[in-house]
Structures
1.
Amino acid sequence: MENPLHKHGRFFDVWARFYRLTLFGLELRRIQRQALDRLKVVPGQRVLDLGCGPGDGAARIHQQGAVAIGLDYSQGMLLTAQKEAGLRGKLTRGDAGRLPFRDGAFDKIVCTNSFHHYPDHLASLREMRRVLKAGGLLVLVDPRQDNLFGRMAIELVEERIFGLKEVRIFPIARWRELLKDAGFAHARVEAGPIWQPVAWAEAFIEATA
Ligand SMILES: C[S@@+](CC[C@H](N)C(=O)[O-])C[C@H]1O[C@@H](n2cnc3c(N)ncnc32)[C@H](O)[C@@H]1O
């Protein structure tokens, strides 16, 4: 059986070429900006953009005066991200399930529309908790299972049509349990605003280490 990491990596290597050009990609970037607003980056902080894709989020964090580090598994996405100002030397290829950073390395982590691809969800959340400083903030946004559009986008389109059988999404109630199991001290999990259908299909998570 093919390693799911490689399979998902290749999927995003292809998508990297036109990610920003699609309407869906534009909507995902709007959601990413909402996540960054919640992150409230302060100049000088060390911030990880996990599953950074083409680097828009990390570039914005850099513009806000923070030390922005981007991690992604897709080589294609990282090649695109390298073109963003301030990101040269700040991008790492790796798997969210085994982060190549020391304990407490970051003040904040942002992770948008990437989590459902991770091969081991609880291990990835534990890694996020590990690399955050005590009191550090994780803002994570991912499609939720308790919404029809969320299920259609992931369980119909990504899983059945694109054949990414390993994707997994969770309802809001399960998210709360996962965050607790991963060791986060406090977590707020809510649906996005109902008047933005793509955001409404997502769980917006703010969790403190
Ligand atoms: C839909 S894109 C989202 C990119 C960006 N965060 C955004 O909001 O526009 C998902 C990203 O997650 C990355 N990804 C998927 N599985 C990963 C893993 N196990 N470790 C690290 N990155 C991963 C993909 O390569 C892709 O760039």
2.
Amino acid sequence: MELRSLKNHGWVKFSHDPGILDWVNHVRPAAAKIAEDPENKALWLRHGKTWFVGVNALKNDKNGRLGWGPPLNGAVSKFIIEEHGEIALDCAQISVVYPGYPAFDGTDSEVAHKYRKDRCAAHVDGLRPEGSQRRRFIHEPHQYVLGLPLSSANIEASPMVIWEGSQHIIRAAFKSVLDQKPIEKWSKIDLTQVYHEARRKCFKQCKRISIIAKPGECYLVHRLALHGIAPWEHAASNSDRGRMVAYFRPQGDGNLINWLNGSY
Ligand SMILES: [Fe+2]
């Protein structure tokens, strides 16, 4: 069921699990502290202070355990073990989106800001733009994105959005270039053009949906799925606290064949 959803739609939501809620209840105060710390704020606030990015900010162990807290468990852990073997999580990103996201502060170009607003800054993780021309190369490809909401939020509060089924289009585009090249050279291959073409195709052909989940629920996003963060709508609740999510993006053994093909 979960595997089918990931294969077909590029994401799957796991229903409420007491084990996940225990984890969230333990992590939430620490995450809030991280996002309020002045040094962290200076380092991670972007877009006119409307997004605290917090990459790898949570100092959890490979089982997701923070200090003496519980490891990450529940149905999602079982699924990850079945598909990827032993759990080996990275340090979680603590992402907090605030009302007004994305505010224009002059850091982005006008074009980039418009893309952020109109297209939710849609992207595929694991491709780093390099240089002033923002050429795209494979960089830190991961196994999946696991999102764990740390606060409640409604649909207007900048949800993650995903173009359903986009992983098929992105995979086919990458394979059209990478399958003809030896794997040792993959990270040096400029994927900019096929990536941009595939992204345009996803916008035309795939349905954009918003992922809404509560603390205790969680979701997995396919490593090749096109996704982004929607702008904050005025009517959103939770207005002063922001919407806080922990994201794991483990790289596993970095096997690029699995990244491109894999079991899903
Ligand atoms: Fe992303």
